[in-house]
UniProtKB/TrEMBL annotation:
This is Putative restriction endonuclease domain-containing protein. Residues 13-172 form the Putative restriction endonuclease domain. Pfam families: Uma2. It comes from Dulcicalothrix desertica PCC 7102. It comes from the Bacteria. CDD domains: DUF820-like.
Amino acid sequence: MIASTNFIPMSPQEYLSWEEQQPIKYEYVNGEVFAMTGRTLPHNSVALNLASALKNHLRGKGCKVFMADAKLGISKKGPYHYPDVMVTCDERDLTSRKIVQFPCLIVEVLSPGTEAYDRGTKFRHYRRLKTLKEYVLIDAEKICLECYRINERGKWELTSYLIDETDETIKVTNTEVDEIEVCLTSVDFNFPISLLYEDVVFDTSQE
């Protein structure tokens, strides 16, 4: 994600009209626009694997699954983002043609250049959504998933699913990866963590 330089701040309405004429997608925060840069192939594979699995799981259940080309509006005044994957089961979204506003699940696949933003500012934006129940961060460079869930007290709690030989809490071999089960409670979906990394080629140059 790259901020556009020499750019005059826009109103939300100006942004929405302007972006429709652009060849690439732009996020919108506080009057500024940010170009959505290209992702790596592992990033794309992880997002596609999860979106495909969610689509199959939710078929016929009155929900929709969207990938990175779907715009999310935090409010009518913005910010506007493009999550890697999101799910909405809200009737108000099911007939929408341009913007999702009431998701229950948002997923971001982490990239080195956007990880801090996804964990910080973007998560603060997402927490303003009253319908959001889970926020998931997935690492495309190693087997790791972090799931934030809102509890009955309205507080966000973190559950981590991690394959790391240096981690004292979870020690598994590569052949046991599929034994770690991830649970997305917002959509009642359980799956092995290996599902996310099907066909993903990890960078072994640092080993």
